[in-house]
Amino acid sequence: MSASPTPSVGDELPRLVIESVDAEKMKTMAALLADSNPIHWDVDTVRELGMGDQPVNQGPNNLGYVMNMLGDWAGGAERIQNIRVRFLDNVFAGDRLEAGGTVTAVGDDGAVACDIWLARDGTHPVLAGTATLLLG
Amino acid sequence: MPTPTIEELESLVGRQFPGGTYAVEPWRVWLTNDVIGAPQRTDNIAHPMFCYYAAMAGLGISIDEMFTLCYASADDGPMFGECDIQQFRPLEVGATYTVRGEITSAVRKQGERTGAFDIVAFQLEVVAPDGEVSSVVSNSFIFPRRPR
Known about the structure:
The complex is a heterodimer.
Chain A: E1 16-18, H1 23-33, H2 43-48, H3 59-74, E2 80-87, E3 97-106, E4 111-120, E5 124-134
Chain B: H1 6-10, E1 20-23, H2 26-36, H3 49-57, H4 63-69, E2 79-87, E3 96-111, E4 115-127, E5 133-144
Antiparallel strand pairs in B: 1-3, 2-5, 3-4, 4-5
């Protein structure tokens, strides 16, 4: 755990950029999760379903990127007390993603609330929600 | 699969999952960190995504069995709704956690474009070897429903 920031309401969290989502890592995660859904590793299936021509990233991976963004800012992902998100759209192999957020409340006890998001090309939202972190 | 009646849907609330255990294996932590781009740590603290992985893997039934329980199948096009993770204390690499949980709500909605759909929410506790709850994970699935 490293030093944590001193936030104020309205602060933008430093963005985390994933330059290109890696299809090979989706295969690893499919094996780790015993996830039999072929949309994560079989391009033919993705095409047959009319979903394009790139594998679809696992939703939890997208949440993991946002947690990484929070952890980088807060001095460790273990400072995340709560995170609540909705999955808004699919992420595909090769997508460029940005994760970010805004501080919405700062408590006397060190608790900090944030709006958080993950967006394709920094503009198209694929995940949005809120998080609470305990800084200290 | 036929659309359940409201009574059948509401009868899901309170249904407990078999539960089980989940071991936070070091190799699994390393590979997961590599996949999601998280730092490889040396302090035995697992990435908070392991709250989710532990909860889902320790549920005691598969996702397909979950769909069946909710009167649906993968062919019905179920979607992930919301995910809420409370991390009271980080999961430890090498520890084995117990998972328990139940369905907490089941409601029918009507969308103008989508037609009828059900939202089934469930809550899972990830319990540390010392008996303390390390994490609570609440998820929901959305099940599109065709007319009965």
